[in-house]
Amino acid sequence: MYKVLIIDDEEPLREAINILGDWKGLGVDQVLEATDGSMGLAMLREQKIDLVLVDMKMPELNGSELLQIVEKEFPELLTIVISGYNDFEYTRQAIRSKVVDYLLKPVNRGDLNAALRKAIDVLEAKRKKESEFINRNITLNMSLPKLKEKIYLSIIERSFKNQSNEAFLPLIGADTAGNYFAAGVLRVLNLEQVRRNRFHEDRDLLHFAVTNVINENSDEHFQAFSFASHKGEREFIAIFTMKGGYEEDATFRSLHHMKKLVSTLKELFGIVVAGGIGQPYGDIMALAQSYETAKASLDGIDLLTLKGAIVTNSSNDTSQGKDNPSLTGRMPLIRNALESGNINHAKSILSEFTKKWEASGRFNLGEADRQIEEFIILLNDIATELDAIPERIRGGKDKGLRGLGIGSDFASFGEFERVLSGILDCYGNEISKSLAGNRPSVLENIKAYIDNHYFENIKISMFTDKYFLSREYLMKLFKGQYGYGIHEYVQKVRMDKAKELLSTPDLKIQDISEMLGYKDKNYFSKAFRNYYDCSPSEYRVLLLNGEE
């Protein structure tokens, strides 16, 4: 049996909790009351309390202050917080204190008993110690929701081991015949905007708010449990469990719940969500298939026709037309433009490319995500070769859009295009800075190599491969710096050296030709004539006559 303490300065709320709580069914034999935080703290110090329900707004010692004290003095005590949606600072402390659940005023019977059941489940798990694993993690302050999240994830990822983890199944209702399970996947389309404007940049608080809305309106026959997906902070996974009934009922209630929560998120927080839902199954292990269907439904939503919040349970075709252009195929053109320092030209190439996507008639969310990921990888490869990795991700933990500091919100094709343009800006600016800094030394190295190896067969590809520069860009840089193209400069060095060698009478013209890298004497003579308007022999005569 368990002892519960209600700490609230409002008598009507204490009375309501007393009346609405299924105390007998939960195994609670004592429900005590405290009229403020100070009184509640004194009772905690005097008696062995198993669970506390605490209001966050109270005179003298408020809920936030009380939770901080409880964390230090009673680290094993389970708490349920009662407050309102807009109590931001109170909610923050509730998250930090790892409360079992967060009840919104006015408290209703379903929410109250669901929260109480969570707490009692943890207490029972502690007492029964069903397995060493459960005991070890609970002593490490692992909450029941986190444990359930791990169980669901292992099932979704097909890594759940029946024999070793069978003791966990009662925690998710998988030990009862006749239950149906379905998965939903939700994507917040304006996460960064909402997190900045409504949640003070607090990611944990936003996640807490979203999952609480998803989990609302559960009852003894239909329950929702949700958590943030580890695959991306804007994605949430919802698990729906219906006790008894028919598969058709589970399908209808899951879809209805998804549509309702999408509407509620928009109304309460301005959060715009797109969601996909999978088929319900009587076998908990089939939840993986339900999740994959839900994810495919979400990814298949057409970005070209997306107009705000949407929920779908149809698996749209996520493949793109065979005639769609390849992003990889455009990268050499984009690279040449970036190496030339012309970011605007690179953007025009990208824009022409995306317009073909748009003209294809269908471009879904999943494809947009893949193209963003691929674009970053391709640009990162170029930046790596040019030693121009953006500083933000050079030593940072975060990669991708977040590491680059680029907003990843997009709820339309136009916004998706702006994300790609932002990626290009980030890498393009870094490449331009890197090349501008390295340009003089690169050109000096090339010139020095020609001055010392003019007699070899010098090819421009030697330098483009070594310095990872395009042929056109390198030739333009070299001529701008020295007034000669690379081939022209090789020819100039050879001809200057030829005049120097011809001034030595003992050297035969054939020998001079070979020393300059010409294997054919006649070819050398022709090149010399074209350069100086006289043959090597005629030039020697002029030298002897003192005319040169």
Automatic annotation (TrEMBL):
Transmembrane domains' residue ranges: none
Stored InterPro entries: CheY-like_superfamily, Homeodomain-like_sf, HTH_AraC, HTH_AraC-typ_CS, Sig_transdc_resp-reg_receiver, Tscrpt_reg_AraC-type_HTH
Keywords in alphabetical order: DNA-binding, Phosphoprotein, Transcription, Transcription regulation
Record flagged with keyword Transcription: yes
HTH araC/xylS-type domain mapped to chain residues: 444-542
One term of GO molecular function: DNA binding
Ranges of residues in domain Response regulatory: 3-120
4-aspartylphosphate modification, residue list: 55
Signal sequence, start to end: none
Protein name per UniProt: DNA-binding response regulator
Organism: Paenibacillus odorifer
